[in-house]
């Protein structure tokens, strides 16, 4: 494999550089994790500068099989469309030989948990009791939370500042990096209101309190108040910045969350994207009402969710059963 060009040499993700410049020539394929719908969705695991990198490609013009995709990767011409300021970057990619075009998401360096989540796997349903949470899940969540120091930089507006829509003592509201169709962040924000791409609206409210790892840690009036404040801020930002009214939106927590710092999602109600299912999404209005009824509701309530067979948390829960 050729040495990466100066333009493609990568620094640490905290240097806020995207994974690639204009080609993927320095990406070493290890395994195609998923190749679905005739190649219209593919996830490829490989190495970039010696560290794991995951590419997720949504195909606009399908190639025939995984080998054809792997052979085409070094030839893709890339245009950076978005970058999270950390490990997520997004591109419009074209294969000049076949004309195949892609929406490409690069995660680099890719954490082990993400690689596992991208692999095809059997799904099982878990009912987590309060006892199982205290004995198994809480230590797991605390260990995972220790690995996400970048969240503090986001909450302090040291990272992703261009994505920030609101900040207060308790939390920040940012444009989620999953909103890959968002317009240019250096444009006048007045041009964002009512834009066609607001159909993909995806906002995130992130707690500044590191002791709040998930909704399991919410208690009583303070927890209910935080839920209501986060929801109000998300809806206000959606309306004021993008012109999307509250009647078009859902605001929810994930459980289990993708990362262990309390954060709320705000998406368009007509989008049934992964994560809005009843066994993962918990509406903030419902969470607040439950805390009003019982201050320690989320310390005691059983919570049901899906896990992938073989992922670390599933293994821990199975071993502790």
Automatic annotation (TrEMBL):
Residues 1-15 have a biased composition (Basic and acidic residues). GO terms for molecular function: hydrolase activity; RNA 7-methylguanosine cap binding. One of its GO terms (biological process) is deadenylation-dependent decapping of nuclear-transcribed mRNA. GO terms for cellular component: nucleus; P-body. InterPro entries: DcpS/DCS2, HIT-like_sf, Scavenger_mRNA_decap_enz_N. It holds the Pfam family DcpS_C. Residues 1-21 are annotated as: Disordered. Belongs to the HIT family. This is M7GpppX diphosphatase. It comes from Pelagomonas calceolata.
């Amino acid at each position: 494999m050729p040495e990466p060009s100066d333009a493609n040499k990568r620094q640490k993700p905290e240097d806020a550089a995207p994974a690639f410049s204009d080609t993927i020539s320095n990406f070493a394929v290890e395994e195609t994790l998923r190749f679905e719908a005739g190649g219209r969705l593919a996830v490829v695991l490989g190495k970039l500068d010696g560290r794991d990198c995951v590419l997720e490609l949504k195909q606009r013009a399908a190639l025939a099989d995984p080998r054809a995709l792997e052979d085409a990767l070094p030839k893709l011409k890339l245009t950076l469309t978005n970058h999270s300021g950390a490990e997520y970057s997004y591109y419009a990619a074209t294969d000049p030989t076949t004309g195949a075009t892609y929406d490409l998401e690069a995660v680099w360096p890719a954490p082990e948990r993400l690689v596992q989540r991208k692999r095809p796997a059997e799904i099982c349903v878990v009912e987590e009791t309060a006892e199982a949470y205290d004995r198994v899940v809480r230590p797991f969540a605390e260990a995972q939370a220790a690995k996400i120091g970048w969240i503090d930089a986001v909450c302090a507006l040291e990272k992703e500042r261009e994505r920030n829509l609101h900040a207060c003592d308790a939390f920040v509201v940012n444009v989620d990096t999953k909103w890959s169709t968002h317009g240019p962040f250096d444009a006048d924000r007045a041009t964002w209101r009512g834009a066609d791409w607001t159909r993909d609206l995806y906002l995130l409210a992130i707690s500044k309190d590191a002791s709040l790892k998930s909704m399991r840690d919410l208690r009583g009036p303070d927890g209910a108040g935080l839920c209501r404040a986060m929801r109000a801020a998300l809806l206000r930002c959606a309306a004021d910045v993008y012109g999307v009214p509250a009647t078009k939106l859902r605001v929810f927590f994930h459980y289990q969350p993708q990362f262990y710092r309390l954060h709320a999602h705000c998406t368009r109600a007509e989008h049934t994207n992964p994560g809005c299912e009843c066994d993962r999404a918990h509406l903030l209005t419902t969470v607040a009402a439950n805390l009003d009824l019982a201050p320690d509701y989320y310390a005691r309530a059983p919570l049901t969710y899906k896990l992938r067979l073989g992922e670390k948390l599933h293994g821990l829960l199975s071993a502790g059963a």
